[in-house]
Specification:
about 550 residues, alpha/beta, FAD/NAD(P)-binding domain, 2 domains, 5-stranded parallel beta sheet, 20 strands, about 15% strand, globular, disordered N terminus, binds NADP nicotinamide-adenine-dinucleotide phosphate, FAD-binding_Monooxygenases, FAD/NAD-bd_sf, Cyclohexanone monooxygenase, oxidoreductase
């Protein structure tokens, strides 16, 4: 047990928020402004969540800075100056620290405090929250703001623990940075994190071995510095941008082409793809409205992508390995890079194809594949996350009848609207399974969820009711609806972390709500307007 946190507040509060990332910070501000007593418990020693931990070189957001920022306070929007179109990790972290200071949030956050248990007292309908510092709180409401991508996945590779060199995980990069000059570096993993880190690592390392099991689609970020004129224009346009974003499929103001990909001429289609390519990054998968539902439409995007990428890779055999052949484009999150494919033209970079020569084991000196031994000084694991449910599953959450959330979710997460769970009254999960989650802009999504929970708490107060609890029939219907919507797309065809496919033993369930951010916002607003239909409102 760690020593007790110095920030000791009241043991009884209205709301405990778990996590001081984007959602947790806003939750604290919002609930506090509603007159509620709030404590935020945060495992890290600072605010920022993923942006606190993921400090690997090249870490950068794939949503434009102007959109990946809070909308709740006009003065904040106007005073903060983003320096780049797609901000890098240090700037996003500085922004979140600024928000914490500006709204005086730190006094209600207990850092270095990891929640271990969240247990319901069925008599009082209060939650007891225990932590690894020994600090315990009770609360009427518990809000899980742990984030869908916060529980690192370290692969079970034989001998990893015998490696004598340095092992780093992209999601827990040392805060003081790492000097890899002159080193032989190995990277395992070519998802978004690996693809961003690899070009930077290649510049430092004497030799870089990239161990690739599955190729991914990556689109250049097209990042640029913002000028003062850009910033002025963006700030003047916030109201429109936000409105479009809230109604959109993914939480940004860019609209898909009005017609399906195959309904337009070849010339028009190419022009649309070129425009998205120039915009950069993840939105390429939403150039046309049917791109993720119609295989033929998807193919037009894939072929455009392939032509662009092959053009910048010198060795056609290397290009063959870097072009995915196992899933439609966009069915895993499209990665966003800066000079990723060009990095393989460097003399000091080697791509190791684990499909044909898998890793057999790791020893003290390096990595053995079935074909060769690669001596390595530093091994970088860019192996992702136990996503969507991983951080929630790490806590022992115990609801009615002593049933744990892990038991309730053993066949896959079961929620109503992503927010509520049967047997867990007044426990709200933010931006997790059953909501658009990682398919949307996480900042606006966090605001949407926090505002909804704040309204729900207000509703209980006006009714002098004590709790809101998702009904079992509503949960079942929502789970079915989410599954049916996913089945109507190509998204279930990839072995993605959206489906838990990257973690052995996880049930294969498409976890995010795929129906669009705007549509989802309407659904949860309608539920609230209908007196929280689908929830039991528990009277005192
Ligand atoms: P990821 O997409 O899950 O990628 C993990 C990589 O590690 C995959 O290439 C995977 O290969 C590989 N891997 C895992 N276990 C392995 C093993 N035992 N042997 C060999 N390879 C192994 O994780 P991520 O790159 O951290 O990205 C996760 C998500 O975080 C992204 O999709 C994105 O939503 C978010 N993210 C966003 C940004 C951004 O804003 N630009 C940056 C970083 C992360 P397989 O595919 O074969 O399993």
């Amino acid at each position: 047990m760690k020593p007790s946190s110095p920030a000791q507040g009241p043991a009884e509060v209205d709301v405990v928020v778990v996590g001081a990332g984007i959602a947790g910070l806003y939750a604290l501000h919002k609930f506090r402004s509603r007159g509620l007593t709030v404590r935020v418990l945060e495992a890290g020693d600072g605010v920022g969540g993923v942006w606190y931990w993921n400090r690997y070189p090249g870490a950068r957001c794939d949503v434009e800075s102007v959109d990946y920022s809070y909308s709740f306070d006009e003065a904040l929007q106007q005073e903060w100056d983003w320096s780049e179109k797609y901000a890098a990790q240090p700037e996003i972290l500085a922004y979140l620290e600024h928000v914490a200071d500006r709204f005086d949030l730190r006094r209600d956050i207990e850092f270095g405090t990891r929640v271990t248990d969240v247990v319901l007292d069925e008599q009082t309908l209060r939650w007891q929250v225990d932590t690894d510092t020994g600090r315990a709180l009770t609360a009427r409401f518990v809000v899980l703001a742990t984030g869908p991508l916060s529980n690192a996945n370290t692969p079970a590779i034989e001998g990893l623990d015998t490696f004598a060199g340095r092992v780093l995980h992209t999601s827990h990069w040392p805060h003081d940075g790492v000097d890899l000059t002159g080193e032989r570096v190995g990277v395992i993993g070519t998802g978004s994190s690996g693809i961003q880190a690899i070009p930077c690592l290649a510049e430092q390392a004497q030799r870089l071995h990239v161990f690739q099991r599955t190729a991914n689609y990556s689109v250049p970020a097209g990042n640029t510095l913002l000028t003062e004129q850009d910033r002025r224009a963006q700030k003047a346009d916030y109201a429109r941008r936000r409105q479009l974003s809230m109604a959109s499929g993914g939480g940004s103001p860019h609209q898909a082409h009005p017609e399906p990909a195959l309904a337009v001429s070849e010339q028009e289609r190419r022009a649309a793809y070129e425009k998205r390519w120039a915009l950069g990054g993840v939105l390429f998968s939403k150039t046309f409205p049917d791109q993720l539902t119609d295989p033929a439409a998807n193919d037009t995007a894939r072929l455009f992508w392939e032509e662009k990428v092959r053009a910048v890779i010198d060795d056609p055999r290397v290009a063959d390995l870097l072009v995915p052949g196992d899933h439609p484009i966009g069915t895993k999150r499209i990665c966003t890079d800066t000079n990723y494919y060009q990095t393989y033209n460097r003399d000091n970079v080697e791509l190791v194809d684990l499909k044909t020569t898998p890793i057999a084991r790791i020893d003290a000196e390096g990595v053995h594949t079935t074909a060769a031994h690669y001596p390595i000084d530093t091994l970088v694991l860019a192996t992702g996350f136990d996503a969507m449910t991983g951080s929630v599953a790490r806590m022992n959450i115990v609801g009615r009848d002593s049933r744990t959330l892990n038991e309730a979710w053993h066949e896959g997460p079961k929620t109503y609207l992503g927010l509520g769970m049967t047997g867990f009254p007044n426990l709200f999960n933010l931006t997790g399974p059953g909501s658009p989650s990682v398919l949307a802009n996480m900042v606006l999504h966090s605001e949407l969820h926090v505002d909804w929970v704040a309204e729900a708490i207000g509703f209980l107060e006006t009714r002098a009711a004590v709790a809101l609890e998702a009904r079992a029939d509503a949960v079942a219907a929502w789970v079915d609806e989410c599954a049916a919507r996913a089945a109507g797309t190509l998204m279930t065809q990839a072995n993605s972390w959206y489906l838990g496919a990257n973690i052995a033993g996880r049930p294969r369930v498409f976890m995010p709500f795929v129906g669009g951010f705007g549509v989802y916002g309407q659904i949860i607003a309608e539920v609230a307007a209908a007196q929280y239909k689908g929830f039991d409102v528990i009277e005192a």
